[in-house]
Structure formats: structure tokens, C-alpha cells
Amino acid sequence: MSSPFGTWPSPFTPDRIAASSPRIEGAAFIGENIWWGESVPSEGGRVTVRSCNGAEILPAPWSARSRVHEYGGGAWTADADGTLFFVDAKDQRVHRMPRGGAPEPLTPAGPAHGGLRLQNGRLFAVREDLSVDPHQRGIVEIPTDGSAADDPTLVKVLVQGESFYAHPALSPDGTRAAWVEWSGDRMPWQRASLVLSDGTGRTELPTRAALQPEWTENDEILYSDDPSGRWALHRQRVDGVRAVSPAERIDDIDADTGYGLWVLGNRWYRPLADGRIVAVRTNGRDEVVVIERDGGARRIPIPADGHVSVDDVAGSRVLLSGNSSTTAPGVWCVDVDSGDVEVVAGATPTDPSWMSAASEVLVDGAHGPVHAFAYEPVNPSASAADDELAPYIVLVHGGPTAHVTGAASGAIAFWTSRGIGVLDVNYGGSTGYGRTYRERLDGGWGVVDVDDVIAAARGLVDTGLADPDRIAIRGGSAGGWTVLSSLVRGGTFAAGISRYGVADLRMLSEHSHDFEAHYIEGLVGPLPDAESVYIERSPLTHVDRIDVPVLLMQGAEDRVVPPSQSEAIRDALAHRGVEHEYVLYPGEGHGFRASETIIDALERELAFLGRVFGFTPAR
After folding, report:
1. Smallest Cα–Cα separation from 193: which of 269, 261, 145?
2. 555 by DSSP, 3-state: which?
3. Residue numbers of the chain with a pLDDT score lower than 70
4. CA 309 to CA 318: how far, in whole Å?
5. 491: which DSSP letter?
6. Nearest to 223, CA basis, from 202, 184, 249
7. Of 271, 347, 288, 316, which is closest to residue 52 (Cα–Cα)?
8. What CA–CA distance (Å, rounded) separates 257 from 272?
9. What angle do CA 408, 409, 415 make, to 5 degrees?
10. Residues 150, 108: contact at Cβ < 8 Å?
11. What's the Cα-to-Cα distance from 48 to each of 75, 195, 557, rounded to whole Å?
12. Helix spans in 141-264 (H)
């Protein structure tokens, strides 16, 4: 017997989604062992470090999480003897925890740290001090003996200033350092310099948007850059801190080895000791390749194909973490010579009878092609009547300089297994398709993204898959902005779900943290000259045009998009009598981490769509 879409019984309960949604936070070879970072949703999103022998290395209540640049990253590392170095989520100090011992601080109280890197026994970090005016950032070397815990003068400063820094890298002989640096009036994917320094002088290499320097020899450095419109690997010969010849591009393909530098821990490639390179190439989805010494490349056949990070290498073995279109997120150990692949953590194969496979979608939009991934409803024990079209929920990622990859996900199956299709859109401005696609959004935020998600939704209707009267739109942060802006446009979506979404551009500009202080200028325009554009584009200005139900969810501790944004929309909808619901989650910031929040949010979203689309979800 058939059952209406949306009413199908599903094993993907909110509790299961919350329990199965840990994030992998890097991996490393530790002697003969392998460690990885993993979030624990049942403990408020605490990030622990685990070992492949089953041990939990970092015990509760400690949590390895950085707040540098707000988005953190690179919050732990370790040496071969099993001494763990980590940034504690509460005080943002770097701590050392010897094997079998207790954590003890290495840095003074006050500044935040992230992007930890241990090289030749020397510990480096990106440091951020928001207690001074102007705010100060830099790259520092931290003594590992604990001597600097109460004496800030013992922390060696490699570089310091008002700019932003990432990816410290030490030359093999220990005499020079390299890093990525950018000024606060640009985002790192717009313009970022590769800097070399020997402590007495510095050189900025001629790069456009540099990422991840890695020394291969004392006179050679690798890095990724996108002067041709795609992030590609380059090799630069140097004499001291001077470039001695033009940089050589290593690979010339229509894909990116790199990504928007939101967090400090990502690694898109690693050189092997014999001169080969293991690298990620992204064109919508990821693939991992070994670049041979002669420049040829061969693909590594692993399931990981979304947001893959090349975390560590040891001989011919490589540690990879990321998402997959056929398994759960995981950590894989690959021997690039033998081809052996070992699952270290996660990576549980998905059941295709329950997990809808993503189909790549390409539709024509007002500004050019629009990329997306579509997931049709799938349930082995339920089906709908032949003449019923499925309801769909259109997902809009945050950033907006980010992208989705078509990865398998319990969060997607939560909807598709119930008979609700999903369309995940990489609107113009997304990464993963080159600089031209990414820069489509410049000056057009609130126009291009809205046009693109509407074009993608209408393209789905044109294929005959979606019920045109039952399409909802859902997004968080910048995705929430696009949700609200699309509802203002009207005519396509029957409901909207905004998680900590931007509602007023002037309000966002006033409260924006340092990392994104000028981000909005590139997306919309500079103030005060563009103030009229800020007003005209803001959903709050035109909230009187929203005439469909809206669900608003917000973290009470969100410092990126504070609650005042969602509450302004709530108050305006309430004043007009438009159906809406507002939920404030205490203790949550920009993104929901606690299992109880994840569970409650999913339950509310499902019930909300049931009311709007006229179905009763199965219990």
C-alpha cells in the first residue's frame, strides 16, 4: 500500500542523527599508532582525541577547540612519543599532556591560539589577542617545557600585527619560516601573500591567494595558489628568503587544490619524502591523487570525495579524513605504493536502499550555470502513489564562500527516508568550481545567490520530480540570509527555515567580528557609499513581502550572527501576523553542536514542514 510523501516511517530518528554526526578534527601518525580528533555531540560538542587502539586520549571535560578567527581549526597536535598539545576550548591556552599525565598550560592566560604545528620538536601557533586595541595577531613559537605559562616574554614572536596569519612552516634546517598572511580588508581567498622570513628579513612572494606552504628542501618550497583561476600546486626555488626563479606550476588541470581558508587546520596536500605529492583535487567533488616526480598523476581509490584533508604522511602511508558519497565521514590510512586502504575511524558503508545517492545537477541561471546535488526520496518499505509529486527541501550552505559535495549523510537521509526530497545548491559564490564561479557573487549577495537557488528549484520542478507547491528552503548563517531573501522575493518557496540567518546587513556590519569585518564590502559594497544597497537588499527591509510560514532558530551565544538578527525578523513577522516560530538555544554559538539541540531542531523542522505541507510525520 502506498503512503503519502512525508509520512514514511524512518529509522533515521533525530536521536540517531545527533549520535551519528561527530566531526573529524584532523588525524596524525603517533609512533605506530594513529590518533584523530572527533567531536562528541552527547557532551555538548566537546572535541576529544581518540586512538585506533580504542583509547580516548583527551578525557572529559577537556576539549580541543580553537576560537582564532572565530572559526578556529588546528586545535591539537602530538609528538611521536605520545605527548599531546592542544588548545583548550574554555581558556584558549595551549596545553601539554604527556602520555599518562594530566594537561598543563604552556601559554599565559589571555590570547587565543590555533593552527598548531609541531616541527623538528618546535611548536608553532597562530595567536590572537582581542583584549588590546587594535586587536593583535601573529605567529608564535611556544616553549614545550611549560616555562612560558606565566611569562609571556618567553613566547617567541615570528610575526605580529593587525593582519591575519595561517600555515606556519619551518624549513628543514630550522633557519627560516614561511606562512600565509593577508590584510583585514581582504578575505584570504581574494588576496593572500606567501611570506618567507629568517628572523632578520622577510620576502613576500608574488602570489594571488596562497595556501599551505610546505618546505621540501632548504632551497625549495611548495604552495597552492590560483593565479589562473584554479588553486594549483606550485614549486618555488629560493636562496635564503629570496625567490631565485619564477614559480613552477606542478599540475595544470581544471580543479582546485585548496579551499576557502575559514579554518586553520585544513591540509590539501602533503609531499612525500621521495618527492611525490599526495593532493586533493576538487571540481564539485574531491578526488585524491598521487603526483609522481615526472608530473603524472594517478588517483587513489578511496571513498572519500568531500572536504578531504591530507592530514599526515609517514613513508608511503597517508592519513586522509573527510566525507564520502558512499560511506559515513571517516579517517583512512592509505599506502600509496601497495594500494592498501585501512579504515581508521568512521567510514561505515551506507545502505543504498535507505541512503539516496546524490545526482549532480546543472541548470541554467540568470548569471550562468548553477551547480547542485539532488537526493530523491528513498525508502525500501514505503512508496507514494504514482500520481503524487514529492515535497522538496532546498538546502543553502553558509559561508557564502563554501560548498557542498554530494556526500552521504544521515542528515540528508533524515528527510529522504521520510519521503521528502533534498536539493543541495552550490550557488554562485561557492568554492569548488574555480575563481570565476566564486567571484560571481562579488557585489551581488542577495541577488545572485537568490536567483541561483530559485533557478535550481525551478529546474527541479521542470524535471517533474518536485511538487511546485511544496518546496521549502532551509539554510544557516549566510544560507539563512539567502533563505530570508528568497522568501522576500516570493513565488517559489512555500516555507522557510532559517538557522542563525542574517536579516539586516547594517546590523551585521556593526556586529561583525574582525575576520569578516570587510567581507560584506566585497559581497555588497563599502559603507557609507553603499548604505542604500544595504537597506534595499536586507530581508528585514522587505519583511512585509514574506507571506509564507517561517521557522527561525538561533544560538544564544552566537557572536558571528547575534540573536538580534533573528529576533528582528521574528518581531516583524509577529507584527504582521505571519505564521512563524522562534527558538533560542542557550549555550549554542554559530552552529549547533549539542546533541539535545540537534535533536530538538530536527524535530521542530519536521513538524513544521508537516504542518505547512499537510502531512503527519510517522512517529
Report:
1. 261
2. strand
3. 1, 21
4. 11
5. S
6. 249
7. 347
8. 16
9. 115
10. yes
11. 10, 33, 22
12. none
Phi then psi for 288, rounded to 5 degrees? -110, 130
The Cα 75–Cα 68 span in angstroms is: 10
Q: Take residue 338 and report the three cell numbers written for it.
A: 601497495
Q: Give the pLDDT confidence score for residue 53 in this predicted structure.
A: 87
Q: Contact 374/363 with Cβ under 8 angstroms?
A: no
- Give the per-residue pLDDT at 294: 84
And the C-alpha cell for 64? 580541543
**Count of positions (residues) in the chain:** 619
- Residue 248: alpha-carbon gap to chain centroid: 29
Residue 274 burial class via C-beta count within 10 angstroms: exposed 0-12, middle 13-18, buried 19 and up: exposed
Q: Is the dihedral of CA 466, 468, 469, 470 positive or negative?
A: positive
pLDDT value for 1: 61
Looking at residue 21, its pLDDT comes to 64
Radius of gyration of the chain (CA): 24
CB-based contacts of 576, cutoff 8 Å, min separation 6: 543, 544
Report yes or no: 451 and 537 within 8 Å, Cβ to Cβ.
no
CA distance readout (Å), 60 to 15, 71, 359, 458, 531: 22, 22, 41, 48, 48
Cα–Cα dist 360/404, whole Å:
11
Report CA dihedral (145, 40, 282, 215) to the nearest 10 degrees. 10
Task: Give me the residue label for grid cell 533573528.
Answer: 566
Nearest to 391, CA basis, from 116, 612, 111, 548: 612
| Model pTM above 0.70 | yes
The CA–CA distances, whole Å, from 218 to 142, 176, 239, 245, 561 equal 23, 9, 9, 15, 44
- Residue 601: alpha-carbon gap to chain centroid: 20
Tell me how far the alpha carbon of residue 577 is from its chain's centroid: 36
For 370, the grid coordinates are 548553477
> What one-character-per-residue DSSP string does 50-106 give?
EETTS-BSS-TT--B---TTTT----EEE-TT--EEEEBTTT--EEEE-TTS--EE-
Block residue for cell numbers 605559562: 149
How far is Cα 538 from Cα 527, in angstroms, rounded to an integer? 14
Angle at 555 between CA 554 and CA 559, to 5 degrees: 115
Give, in order, the Cα–Cα distances in Å from 608 to each of 466, 489, 554, 598.
19, 21, 16, 15
Reference 330, options 260, 231, 217, 408; nearest CA is: 408
Instruction: Give 186's DSSP letter.
Output: S
Q: What is the distance, to the nearest Å, from the Cα of residue 584 to the centroid of all Cα atoms in its chain?
A: 23
Q: Which three cell numbers stand for residue 452?
A: 541561483
Residues 25-51: b if buried by 16+ CB within 10 A, e if exposed: bbbbbbeeebbbbbbbbeebbbbbbbb
Query: SS3 of 149, please?
Result: coil
What per-residue confidence (pLDDT) applies to 208? 96
| Placement of cell 539586516 in the chain | 504
Helix (H, G, I), strand (E, B) or coil at 437: helix
Q: Which residues of 520-530 are buried (b: 16+ CB within 10 A; e: fewer)?
A: bbbbbbeeeeb
> CA-CA distances (angstroms) from residue 52 to 33, 57, 138, 342?
7, 10, 34, 11
